[in-house]
# Entry
Amino acid sequence: MKISRNILYAIIGLGLYSAAGCSNDPYLYKAPVDAIWLSGDASQNATSQYVEYSFKSDGNDGDYYILNLVVNVVGNASDKDRRFNLDIVEEETNVSSSCYELGETVVPAGAISVKIPVKVKHYISDVDLTKEFAKLTFCVKSTEDLAAGIVERNKYTLKWCDYFLKPSSWSRTIDYYIGPFTQARYKFIMDFTGVTTFNDDDYNWVLGFQAQLTHLLNKYNDDPANADRPEGWPYKNDDGSPLAFGPNLKN
# Structure
């Protein structure tokens, strides 16, 4: 017996709806309610799973920074505001609610995405931000208006710290000719050259930059006026040894 295409689609759709409707798991998508999934703000260099922010790299001495959590609708815009719920994934979070402030969890009427501001605090006691990331992971909890959507994108992590983050352009070439990434080496480079992006595919640039840094470091170490500087005299690396620039350094 032949079944028409429309009837077949209807049977499949009814089966999917019934399967979703029978589930008691609030994190599963439940048709036909519109759904949401989470992402980061591309303007903040977010990846598909997390966004990282460094107060130190940004030169931010303030009390907080706003990281945006982007909520995306799978479905249609509505003519009314729609509220959604977010839970904290405890096993992927190392801060308490006192370390951040979450903006209003509403998708406005007419919108299919919204940036939710999360105020992450700089000076906290839960985590030593000079040594490790604060991590805050949200996940979608279904409501009557908006269900959890794309399974792989139902959670998102915000990470922040107060130490320098290694630039993506600090490649193995920079590691070899300039030195491995350390907090002290990167600070020296930024303070004395202002360079934060490295042209590692230009061999002449790399060698020229190596010579420039060696000259600047020697100049610093030869000046007794630097004796009282917190960076040390001679300039110290992270482990307390004298900083150096050059090929094949171990630290």
